[in-house]
Amino acid sequence: MISNSLVEKLFSGDKRSISKAITIVENSLTESIELLNTIHSNTGNAFRIGITGPPGAGKSTLTNQLTKLYRKQGKKIGIIAVDPTSPFTGGALLGDRVRMNEIGQDENVFIRSMATRGSLGGLSKKAIDAADIIDAAGFDLILFETVGVGQSELDIAKAADTTIVVLVPESGDSVQAMKAGLMEIADFFVLNKCDRPGAEQAAAALQSIISLRSHDESSWLPPIVRTVASENKGLDEIIEKIESHKLFLSKNDRFQNRREENSKSRIQEIIKQLIFAEIWNNERTELLNKASQDVVNGSLSPYEIAEKIIENFKSKSV
Amino acid sequence: MISNSLVEKLFSGDKRSISKAITIVENSLTESIELLNTIHSNTGNAFRIGITGPPGAGKSTLTNQLTKLYRKQGKKIGIIAVDPTSPFTGGALLGDRVRMNEIGQDENVFIRSMATRGSLGGLSKKAIDAADIIDAAGFDLILFETVGVGQSELDIAKAADTTIVVLVPESGDSVQAMKAGLMEIADFFVLNKCDRPGAEQAAAALQSIISLRSHDESSWLPPIVRTVASENKGLDEIIEKIESHKLFLSKNDRFQNRREENSKSRIQEIIKQLIFAEIWNNERTELLNKASQDVVNGSLSPYEIAEKIIENFKSKSV
């Protein structure tokens, strides 16, 4: 049961209550549903920005600097750092977080690092739930920062109003492959560490890839912002570009449409989680354990077993 | 309906039939189930090797060279290259494939590149189905090559008997983050491009991370193989290490256990696909489209809608 006082304190913007609420989301599906149903009508006001890109591109530094600039404008900022680390390597990225301690002291900055602790599935869902909590607490902006390891950044992009992809000049080849997802989700690019050699060529290469994107007069072509985040260069332009993208979204129902699309993805993901929590009860997990032997021994195909388990689920779930 | 002649030709090792069968897997869920049920008892003989790592590490070159060496041993090789590219950037990695044309001419080498064409979900499942097809066609070895963009490489690791993680000396920082998943899935590491500066430090750093892994006398600690794949250096050692890992697996039911674990993941993934194909019929997709407006307007929470859709699914699915 979610206490009324927790919800009240949350609405008042109390950081400790935000933290508590996110812990609920991390630990209990049932309680988190209750909590999110309770607060839902108080969400939707915060603007959500996704910051992603390959490891080492300087996303943490950028997030840090952006936060400081937004604080000068009086904005309240929530930061959700999504680390899809494993139990084995958990905490590897802790160093980055330490640098954030400074801004984290601010009463109007809330920072939460969310890691998988074992199962990758569900992390993005939890991060989005956490954003709702920070949103309901009256924060103006939510920054999702994800380390660039694939699916989670794509999922987070589906939760953001604006997605910034951070690259560095030497990304080069890596980008070739990583752009797979990244190119598609970028509302704009930040080419960071632009004091390094090859910055201009990298920008030109990036520009030529962007212009391949099918577009007409009414569509948005991702601009490129050059920065040296560690020296605070180019940060103002990022904020400008966020504003122009926001303005672009505000026309012709685009903002509403984007949020509807994001909601659809979110609902689908929630359905996935709920159904799987239900399917994998003890009985069917046991069934799976036994059946996997039959698959390896060749007597039953994985599809035959899958259908058997689905049948069992359906017959017992009504 | 799957024709008997297709299955017969497939069992005889005919490359064109393998290709046809994989196309079925890519395009039709119903037909692919029929096909995979039919061939299942003929699978399980091929040894499956996953080759993964960050973009630019030289995985394609390595796969290429390994294939040539295995051909000298008379082995029949299937290669499944998993490219989680998007429609927008599809084909970006085609250059890599071109280099493979040479070995692809060989009657005893089958190469298939599998891309997502839009939806990331299901690619790994299809790649594993494809491996079954190649396996049933009597090939000795299957190499899964994945570009390092996250979830798909973790999924492929769950389909491999041995997983090789390819890194380069300069991975450095990137590895910090990417190791998230990679460290955990590696049965051994290949440090490629070892003629570059920093190779020894990189190997030492990697070694120290590996030794953090909890282990006892009976467990396998991933070795590191140094290579310069483009100059064909160190390739023999990779094959040696594959053999020692195979030998390790052959003791104490480890091989059987690993395949059972892999089968479990596969069955779970299949269930996911089957259930979602069923959930998202026209009626419920329509329901989702309408409901997403209510979520954005704040009148219903995504959890309330998810529960409504699940209820609808259950009541109509029996």
How far is it from the N-terminal to the C-terminal residue of chain A, by CA? 25 Å
CATH superfamily of the largest domain in chain A: P-loop containing nucleotide triphosphate hydrolases
Give the strand content of chain A: 5-15%
Quaternary organization:
homodimer
**What is the correct CATH architecture of the largest domain in chain A?**
3-Layer(aba) Sandwich
Order of strands across the biggest sheet of chain A?
Answer: 3-2-4-1-5-6-7
Q: What is the number of strand segments of chain A?
A: 7
Order of helices and strands of chain A: HHHEHEHHEHEHEHEHEHHHH
Can you characterise this structure?
The structure is a homodimer of 318-residue chains. Chain A has 318 residues and is of the alpha/beta class. Chain A has 2 domains: 43-252, Rossmann fold; 280-316, no CATH class. Helix content of chain A is 55%, strand content 12%. Chain A has helices at 4-11, 15-27, 29-39, 59-72, 94-99, 101-104, 123-136, 151-157, 172-185, 199-210, 235-250, 254-279, 282-297, 302-316; strands at residues 47-52, 77-83, 109-115, 141-146, 162-167, 188-191, 224-226. Chain A has a 7-stranded parallel sheet with strand order 3-2-4-1-5-6-7, with helices on both faces. In chain A, helix 9 (172-185) links the parallel strand 5 and strand 6. The longest helix of chain A has 26 residues, at 254-279. The two termini of chain A are 25 Å apart. Mean pLDDT of chain A is 86; it is low at 86-95. Chains A and B meet through helix 3, helix 8, helix 9, helix 12 and helix 13 of A and helix 3, helix 8, helix 9, helix 12 and helix 13 of B.
